[in-house]
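pinging the channel bc i need a second pair of eyes. not urgent but kinda urgent?? the chain im working w is below, pasted from the shared doc
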Amino acid sequence: MALIIPNAAVATPSSSYEPQLDIAKTKKFRSEFGFSTNENYIKSIHNNPKYNERIERFGVSLSDEEYNDLINENKL
């Protein structure tokens, strides 16, 4: 008897990943945590591939400082 184990799909960020920006959703999330809701600031973070993993994880763009604040302050 053979044991069949399903393959688990693991998401890995790729350089071709281009997340869509939902300004309303992003502003709402950011305002709930006391982060800037300035549209130009949000776009600048969103357009930086460095932050793609955070967009995938949280659904919004977060700078290093904002990400660390969420993690270190246990806001999530």
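so The chain has a mean pLDDT of 81. and Residues 23-32 form the longest helix (10 residues). — does that match what u expected or am i reading it wrong
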